[in-house]
Write a structure and sequence with these properties.
Elements (H helix, E strand, L loop, with lengths): L2 H20 L6 E6 L2 E7 L2 H4 L6 H7 L13
Antiparallel strand pairs: 1-2
C-alpha cells in the first residue's frame, strides 16, 4: 500500500487519539481497514467506561460483531 494511502488511513486514528486525550484518557487512536478502505475508527475509552474493555484496540476487535465478545472470558 502506498505511503500516502497509509497516511490518509491513519489520519482518523490521530484525530481519535486527540479526542481520547480531551476526554481524559490515554491518547490512543485506532483504525480498522480492509483493502485500503477505512471501516472503523475509535479511541481509548477506558476512563470513560471505567474498565479495560474500553481500550481502543479491544473496541476495534469487537466493533464489527459485538455478539462474538464473551463478557465472562473477554474472548
Amino acid at each position: 500500500m502506498p505511503l500516502d494511502v497509509r497516511r490518509e488511513l491513519m489520519s482518523p486514528a490521530l484525530a481519535e487519539a486527540c479526542l481520547g486525550r480531551r476526554e481524559g484518557d490515554i491518547p490512543i487512536g485506532s483504525v480498522l481497514c480492509r483493502e485500503g478502505t477505512l471501516s472503523w475508527c475509535g479511541h481509548n475509552r477506558r476512563v470513560q467506561l471505567g474498565d479495560l474493555e474500553g481500550a481502543a484496540l479491544i473496541q476495534e476487535l469487537i466493533a464489527p460483531n459485538p455478539a462474538l465478545w464473551n463478557e465472562d472470558t473477554g474472548r
